[in-house]
Each structure stands twice: as structure tokens, then as C-alpha cells.
Amino acid sequence: MLAARPESPLLGGFMATTVFTIANQKGGVGKTTTAVNLAAALAEKKIHTLLIDLDPQASATSAVGIEKVAGRSLYGPLRGEGTAFEMITPTAYEHLALIPSEEDLAAAEIELAQTENYLMKLRGVLEAIRASNGYRVIIIDCPPALGMLSMNSLAAADWLLITLQCEYMALEGLGQILRNVDRLKNAHVNDGLQLGGIVMTMFDSRTNLAKQVVDEVKQHLPDKIFATVIPRTVRLSEAPSFGQPIFAYDPHGPGAAAYRALAKEVIARFGLA
After folding, report:
1. In the sheet that 137-141 helps form, which strands lie side by side, from edge to edge?
2. Is residue 7 situated within a structural domain?
3. Which of 112, 114, 133, 202 has minimal CB crowding within 10 Å?
4. Residue 52: beta bridge partners?
């Protein structure tokens, strides 16, 4: 069960909910790994966190040990059937809850485009959860494409976090994501959306290329890149297949240390404490 809400001078004694979406139109760049382990790291710091799996592949769902169950995703609420509250599922980890995904969510990519205000559906679905102030942080894991679900996630978020693999080709997609953010803002779909930061993932210290990619991002977006770099480790790759965040699977390894450091940066940068 969720513990008592954190008190703050904000909102009559309760902290406002901050919504992060973690996106990249390219797959295999550590997006889901970051969504799951950042959420778990914040929960480890006793920050009430809700992880939303918006990817029909349901990788984040399985990575925290939850089985896919028909009718438990946001597919129904996005269609006006049921509420997001009804889909919240407890996990084995204190302070961490999940809204799972399922294969049916893939149909939303097509169906959303046929509805009025199609970019605002997720934002509307999450309004009640945000208003409840029951969670300090909501983290949305997007599909590896800038389709309807990802665009809805951007429209619903306060901050965009981008994961970039430490390989040269990963840089090509960065401009595309940032252009989509500008389009949403220019269309007044989400005027408040900001790039919160760039997480460099799968860093291999043995290669010059990885270091060059990090240096190039630092040169172009020095105030956005996080100081913490996520290493490429076998344990981080294995953990999802065991249905565990890295803190349960390999709590003392370099992957866990990196995500704890990233969480510390996120808490400081966005005033989550």
C-alpha cells in the first residue's frame, strides 16, 4: 500500500506531482532500463513513484516482475473505459507502483488518431492521479517510435528525459526528438514541456568512440547532459529477464551504483526531495 503523501508547502501541504517521459524513437538505447531503474532508485529514496508502461511490448512491466494481464493497461482509459486509478498495480518494491502494459495497447496507435484532441488523451487520463498528489513522481516509458502513444506521453509530461546510447548513430535521432518537442510547444499542445536531461547509456570506457559521443553531447547541450553515465554491463542486461530492477538483482554492482547516482542528480535537478 502507498504510504502517506509527502508534505510540502506546495498545494496546501502536499508536493505537486512531477511527470517525466523517457523517450527515444530508436530501440535498444537503454530507455526501458532507465525508466525502470530510475523509478526504482527514486522509490529506494522513499519518493512515491508511479511507473507507467506505455510500450505495447510491456518490457517495463516484466522488468519489475509483473505479468501482462488483459485489461490492466491504459488502453481502456484512453478509450474512455475505466480510469487510470483502476490500473495501478502494486509492485514488490516499497514506494513503487506500476500501470502495466499489454499487447492491446498497440491498437491505441491507430485508434487515437481517429479521435478528437487525440494528442491530449493521456494527459486527460492522468489528471485525476496528478490531482490526488499520491505520487511525487510519474515516469512514463514510451514505445521506441514517435507515434501516437509517444506523442501523447510528451503532451502529458512536465519533463522529457532522453536516453542516448554511446554510439555515433544514436546522435542522429536527438534532433528529431527535440524538433517534435518544439512542434508540440508551438502548437500549444504542451507549452510547459521542457527537455529535462540526456542520459548517456551503454557506455564502454574501453572505446574512444563512446567518450567522443559523450563529449559531443556535452559540447552541444552542456546544461542538459547528466554527469552520471550508465555503463554497459551484463548485469543490467540480465536483470529484466529475472523480473527485477538492478537494485534487487545486483545491488552492489556498477549498474546499481550508476542508477543511484542518476537518481541523486534527478532529485537535485528537479527539486524532488
Report:
1. 89-90, 96-99, 49-53, 137-141, 18-23, 159-165, 194-203, 225-231
2. no
3. 114
4. 99, 140
Task: Please report whether residue 6 resides in a domain.
Answer: no
Residue 224 within a domain: yes
Is residue 174 in some structural domain? Answer: yes
Q: Name the domain count of the chain.
A: 1
CA distance 96 to 260: 15
- Please check whether residue 89 is in contact with residue 67, taking contact to mean a CB–CB distance below 8 angstroms: no
Please tell me the pTM assigned to this model. Answer: 0.92
Which range of residues forms the domain containing residue 43?
Answer: 14-270
Task: Look up cell 500500500; give the residue.
Answer: 1
Query: What CATH number is given to the structural domain containing 47?
Result: 3.40.50.300
* Grid cell in block for residue 211: 567518450
